[in-house]
Amino acid sequence: MDHQAGLLRLGIFAAILAVMALWEAIAPYRPATAVRRPMRWLTNFGLLLLGAGLTRFTVGAAMIASAVLAQQQGWGLINLVGLSGWHGGFLGGLIAIVALDCAIYWQHRLTHIVPLFWRFHRVHHCDTEFDVSTAIRFHPFEILASALYKSFFVIALGADPWAVVIYESMLSGFALFNHGNVHLPGGFDRLLRRVIVTPDMHRVHHSILMNETNSNYGNILSVWDRLFVSYVDHTKTNDHDMQIGLEEFRDKRSQSLWGVLWLPFRQP
Ligand SMILES: [Zn+2]
Fold first, then answer.
1. Residue 236 above 60 pLDDT?
2. Which of these, 15, 54, 81, 177, could form a disulfide with 140 (CB 3.0-4.6 Å)?
3. Which residue windows are transmembrane per the record (predicted)?
């Protein structure tokens, strides 16, 4: 199953990445101003490869293994309730996906609250532009910690292994979508963000203004930000000209691949 699941996830990831990159190329929302795109993309894709490499050789299989173990042992909330039949399986999968999305909302919020976690998460936020490559800009240690955090919830929920595969594909697919340098027509964006996180909603989270950085933590469903009172509708400045990134990390040293790998360990 691991091999099939890995191929499926890679295929979905590559397809959504290609669609978003094409969309950005044809109709970019914000102009590519001072973007040193080759350097940014080298940093962001470099992090993706390092993160993927590190997890592959460490905790890569942890989530699926946790799901299989929970299934065999009958552990977790969903297994305890004992949903049966195909509709029970479907409902169980849906519950797992929604609950994991809520867990990721809190993981994200905690990375902003706990100073040690923020040191690593600021690698994602110090990107001075906002496009599909921002979605993959995470310190490898944060990816590793996240895999362990999610594995805990997979066991606690008793999530089905295939629900985990679908959720993981959705997690990366939605991250690529909501970091896109694209814009949906106002009415459509409003309608969509009643349910899911849109690029216009998530861009606020990358604002240089700290009260806006500390908002809109959601990844798939927008309901968590409304429920836990962290929703900010739009930036104080304006979407086109808003400054992206962190005030204290705008120098060249904070933007190279080596620079971001070292970023958690240095003072601003
Ligand atoms: Zn964040």
1. yes
2. 54
3. 6-26, 47-69, 89-106
User: If you measure from the C-alpha of residue 107 to the centroid of ligand 1, how many angstroms do you get, rounded to a whole number?
Assistant: 10
Whole-angstrom distance, CA of residue 133 vs CA of residue 200 = 16
CA of 108 to the centre of ligand 1 (A): 6
Across residues 10-31, what is the average pLDDT? 94
Residues 14-42 have a mean pLDDT of 86
From the list 219, 238, 109, the residue with the least C-alpha distance to 174 is 219
What would the two tokens of residue 14 be? 């590559």
Q: Which residues of 175-208 are buried (b: 16+ CB within 10 A; e: fewer)?
A: bbbbbbbbbbeeeeeeebbeebbbbbbbbbbbbb
For ligand 1, the distance from its centroid to the CA atom of residue 199, given in whole angstroms, is: 14
CA-to-CA distance for 258 and 237, rounded, in angstroms?
32
SS3 138: coil
Cα(86) to centroid(ligand 1), Å: 37
Distance 104 CA to ligand 1 centre (A): 11
The ranges assigned to domains in the chain are 2-24+40-265
In three-state secondary structure terms, 195 is: coil
Q: Can you tell me which residue has the tokens 């939605």?
A: 174
* Residue 7 phi, psi dihedral angles, 5° rounding: -65, -40
The enclosing H or E element of 85 equals helix 85-113
pLDDT at 34 over 70: no
Q: Separation of 22 CA from ligand 1 center, angstroms? A: 25
Distance CA 6, CA 102 (A): 24
> Which residue from 235, 244, 254, 267 is spatially nearest to 129, judged by alpha carbons?
244
The residue among 103, 119, 137, 142 whose CA lies nearest residue 206 is 137
